[in-house]
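The methods section describes the discrete structure representation at length, but only in general terms. An entry of this sort, consisting of the sequence and the corresponding backbone structure tokens, reads as follows:
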Amino acid sequence: MTSTGTVVLITGASSGFGALTARALADAGHTVWAGMRHTEGRNAPRVQQALDYAKDHGVDLRPVELDVTSQASVDAAVSRVEGEHGRIDVLIHNAGHMVTGPAEAFTPEQLAELYDVNVLSTQRVNRAALPGMRRRGRGLVVWVSSSSVKGGTPPYLAPYFAAKAGMDSLAVSYAGELARWGVETSIVVPGAFTSGTNHFVNSGRPADTAVETEYETHYPGLVEQVAEKLAELEPEDADVSMVAEEIARIVALPHGERPYRVRIDPSNDGSEEVSQVSDRVRRTLLARVGLADLLTVRK
């Protein structure tokens, strides 16, 4: 097997963006640890697929048990990777879950669970992996966000949108707080790819079915309508692998030259326009308060 020496840990790598990104990075010559939960249970076939891919393509792709909702599981995975290589060079926050339905029909407990998967999970992994990066004064953290954070937001996706916005905001703050440690941040913003991932297929539904039924009287078939219309917005050449290829490109760039935010949104939901304003405001304010150095990573 070939290796450039770059050690990558990615969460949520059993399918979708995660699995594709793990393979793209392994194909590029990196050592990739593909984090996924239930490796000896329901995801055992995914583990075997990863192992088969590594063998067939002569790459270094290694599945690892990693449940982002469990600090013990996160700590064990990070410890295993660092124990074998002495470091993690690139950390990719990809794990996430989507739900669809009227916001009111979701219980507070459901929203808390969604927030746990999409936001708190990144904090668990960061607290395990960042100390090593900070000690070495080098590293890259990639956050897989969503164009929904700043772009158009159709209804019946509110809990997911809110969670992704929370993760994106966390990424923005972390970028400045890690810059002086020499740790880079790249926020990758995919658009609404309606095929090639399991987001819509495996999306959760509201627990309060009575309220959901009431909404159906005024918004009949809205979930299907949104999914159908989003699919119509996608150009014919839109491919979910574009996200994996962009992440691989970012990882390959020299230290200190990775982009702060990139968008992969063939449907163009307006996220780029809003992000440009938001990121400009961030740059301006940091400069005004004497913290312009946080806009670039310390080399």
